[in-house]
Amino acid sequence: MSASTGPVLTIGALTLINRSVFNDKPVDWKVPVGTAVAVVLFSAAERVVGRGAVYIAYLALVTMTFVRVDPKIPTPAESALAWFEKR
Fold first, then answer.
1. What DSSP character marks residue 79?
2. Percent of the chain, pLDDT > 90?
3. Is the distance from CB of 35 to CB of 11 less than 8 angstroms?
4. CA 65 to centroid of chain Cα atoms
5. Distance, CA of 13 to CA of 62 (rounded, Å)
6. Terminal Cα distance for the chain, rounded
7. pTM of the entire predicted model
8. What is the Cα Rg of the chain in Å?
9. Would you say residue 33 has pLDDT above 90?
10. Residue 54, CA distances (Å) to 26, 76, 77 in order
11. What integer best gives the mean pLDDT of the chain?
12. Domain residues for 68?
C-alpha cells in the first residue's frame, strides 16, 4: 500500500461516521465508492509526484475535519464535540 492510502481511507470513514452515527442520516453509498476511487488515484499520483501526493492527502484530511462541505451537516469535529457533550 502507498503512504497516501491511510489518510484517504480515514477521510471516507470519517465521512460515513459523521453522517450516519453523529447526524443520524442514511448511509450514502457514494462515499465508499468515491473513497475507493480516490485511493487508487492517490496511489497513482504518489508514483508520479512522490511525497507531494501524501502531503495533499493529509491536507485533505485536516480540511475535511474542520471545514463544512455540506452546509446542512456539521463537520466531524463539530459533530463529535456535540455528540460527546450529550453523553
1. H
2. 66
3. yes
4. 7
5. 14
6. 37
7. 0.88
8. 14
9. yes
10. 31, 21, 22
11. 91
12. 5-86
**How many domains, the chain?**
1
Can you give the pLDDT at residue 53? 94
Q: Which of 78, 70, 84, 62 is nearest to 7 (CA)?
A: 62
At 4-22, the pLDDT tens digits run 999 999 999 999 999 888 8
Position of cell 455540506? 70
Residue 30 corresponds to which amino acid? Answer: K
Helix axes 30-49, 51-66, angle to 10 degrees: 150
Residue 86's pLDDT is: 82
In this predicted structure, what is the pLDDT of residue 32?
Answer: 94
* 39 and 1 Cβ atoms separated by less than 8 Å: no
CA-based nearest residue to 68, from 29, 25, 19: 19
